[in-house]
Protein: Flagellar hook basal-body protein
Organism: Novosphingobium beihaiensis
Amino acid sequence: MSALVDVAASVLLSNERRIETIAQNIANLQSFGYKSQKMKNVSSVEAKPFSQVLSETVVGADFSQGRLIQTSNSTDLAISGRGAFLVRRGEELVFTRNGGFTVLGDGVLVNSEGMVLQQVGGGDLVVPNSPLQVKEDGTVVSEGRVVGAIGLYEPDAKGFISNPGGGYTDAGATPVADGETIVRQGMREASNVVLSDEMVNLMAASRLAESGAQVMRQYDNLLGQAISTFSGTGR
């Protein structure tokens, strides 16, 4: 009898995580650079320990390319291909595909959350207060002179930890190989969330959650019948 409860609990727990992930994706539908979080498909319903259910439900980010949007702002940058920008938040380094930057008075480029863009080899990228040209390889040129190069890093979809707003942390990230990434100046990358896919996933998760709830109702009915039977016989 307890196996029924284990099955129902496994289904309900995995679908709670699934629905939370779908809700996060939908909430970030308009977030620049956001990468959709993907869940494993449930191929069977079976009893599993909670720790196993938690480890099997979340896969990580889908790093497929999002649509590039023209902005004509010289400090807006988009990545076409692999990799991510490296930005600094205090002492923490974060990787992001959101390339909406602004130049501050001291020459550093920051995003909307105040995170500072990092250069190749580490350290804040500092640029002069003058028109900038960003080449496809990330080299930054001002008044005909190279003033730095933007650091681009290869994301590990399984190792990255998602942060609010589409950022990721992973100490094991490596620089992107030459020729695998193009930096587009005056553009930003849209979220790669597909709303229709998320709605289909939500309906599937709802059906599975109902299956788990139905198992629990059946268990309650059987338990009630057993109690009534034993009470009637005086046992």
Q: What stands out?
A: The mean pLDDT is 79. The longest strand covers residues 84-89. The chain has three helices and 18 strands.
